[in-house]
Queue: 2 jobs
Job 1
Amino acid sequence: MVAYRSILASAAALFLAVSAAPTPDVPSTPLIPAACNNPIVRKEWRSLTNTEKANYINAVKCLTTTPSIATSIGGAINRFDDFQGVHATQTPNIHFVGFFLHWHRYMLHAYEQALRNECNYTGAQPYWDWFIDIDSGLPMEQWPIFDAVTGFGGNGPYVEATAEQNPFGLTGRTGGGCVPDGPFTVANNFTVNINKTDVSRSDPRCLTRDFMPTVATTLIQHSVVTELNAKTNFKDFAYRMEGLPSFDYPNVHGGGHFGVGGVLGTFGDSNNSPGDPIFYLHHANVDRLWALWQEQDPSRILSVGGPISPFDYEGDQIDLNFHINLAELGPSRPLYELQYTRGPMMCYRYDQ
């Protein structure tokens, strides 16, 4: 612990003294010195070349043909399933808590490493900047990320939802059925395999999407990022990032999930949302907003706070020594190892 905290503390203090000369791999404007010399660069999806997009999608498909290692997830067939299954088992404890951002940063890092180390992917995990699409004024079906050739495929056909499936009575649904095009269809040998309620059982089925454009545009608002950047401590930042479980409260995290997944879509299922490959690009953008906020003030590298138990804001709080894990996908780690994207444990940055 001493070594990690020493490095993080040095990163927070060094720029206050004499700035070290930046390396070519580090952006020219960050306030925080890098602890790793060659961070891989996570880029926005549409900035990738078509070849780079294909390489990423092929690596994701490679995970779906690589046998599972998560023995605690009996329903997992392949490595892609492993991540969905671990998320599903821990969902009750990793949302609306102080370590929500840390846990998903850790999961993304493990997923990125699996792509690179097991599937010969040489790039970094891309992210999806929803604001580019929201601001474009284009209908969701025309957003580049949903392109059938260079993206993740589009919306499913419309399917009626029962009152039980739609307990909040959400309106504006446009899909709900199996994604009919793109690389992640049953015809292209992609299935969501883990049973929705019992991770010990396999239940292969199609990927579904249920676009809700009004939810996307209502929840994904620039004002949320303005509010996030105005927060001066992590506890307040994290609370605003995850927001409240309400469709009346602008929230970029929920807006991505439910704007795409809606009521019947895989991405709108809180337990099983990693069954939609777009999950990882969405959460990379959430992580990017945290990383950018951290770099505004180096003291934020060591800033943590928030409840250990969901919604228990007056109860026990996390600190840098609080541990989280990814079951078979990653050992128990203290939060201080997950505070900083450029070392010493992780080594990546965002393009902007």
Job 2
Amino acid sequence: MSTIKMKVVLAFLVIFGVHSIDAFLSVRNTSFYYGNDKVFLSGANLAWIYFGSDFGSGGYAKVRSAYESAIDDISSHGGNAMRVWLHADGRYSPKWDQDGFATGEDTQSLIEDLGLMLDYAASKNVFIVLTLWTLEGTPKPMMHLYYQEDRLQAYLDRVLKPLVAGLKDKKALAAWDLVNEPMGSLSQTHKDPNPCYDTTHLKDTGAGWANETIEYEKILKLINWHADAIKSVDPKALVTSADNGEFTTTTVCEKCRDHYTDECLIGAGGRAKGTIDFYALHSYTWEGRYQPTSPFKHNFDFYNSKKPYLMEEFSTTNSESHSPSWNYHHIYEGGFGGILSWQYNQWGKWVDSKESMFEGMASIRNLTSNGKIDIKL
């Protein structure tokens, strides 16, 4: 190749192929990056249309237009991210046999359905955070995975690993969020000599509202095994596990303890790759006031974290300011990694109207000082 042609090719790559080598969301220090660009995730949750049954075995055909409409709205109002729940409590997917083993019979349909959503999201420059399970309620269909290692491993081998392999080249897949709000299923009185598993510091915090508790060690083990399985298939994948508030994810108050450190997770499950890459926080007011340690009261530096923080759930309806613009600006200008409003389908309590979340996204769409929002996937 001549020198002139080489220069032309290099110029083309610089201008048009900035993301060609590292074309997936990544973490560097305490920030998110896409290629060479620092990015900020701005958007909303669309956790479900039909709880736990939107994907696999023909489910997505019934809701595809609703998901694509949400992606369109987020994109057109200046957002770049949406969070979606997959299995939830395991009532619809994955498919189980009579002994509680995942059969894998619906895995290919899950790959196909999620692939359709992710491809459409990429066409609109919207990242997807994919949440697997939830503990904020009472997840009976999948509860055995916390207690039976052979059933857990069967799920990882027959469902999760093939799912990761089938989706790992999708640019819109931002991260795997493993368990939603474990705090809902934690006892406030469980004593353990290992501080990673002891929950006595949660007394009077509201923990355990799901009314069926699980020992923290079992939750951390499940997270560790999931994260390790994902990273063994796709080493570049980002993994998190979301929790409610700062009591289990930070060390900034007397009742606060970070249970999701590398040491806690590996100690619980024993698998070296089974750690999280960033923290996903949920913050709501109680009786009109945030906890004194809420991210809506502080900047990111307050937490002395070595990993990014994504404000994964909040609602302006349930905030102190009641201003979408103020909330989105505060998280952006405070140095956090992103903000997602709860939730687009307006189901349940403490939800924002679409107009509210659109106002918040639009108010920061052109900012760049804490990362780009206007990105090209």
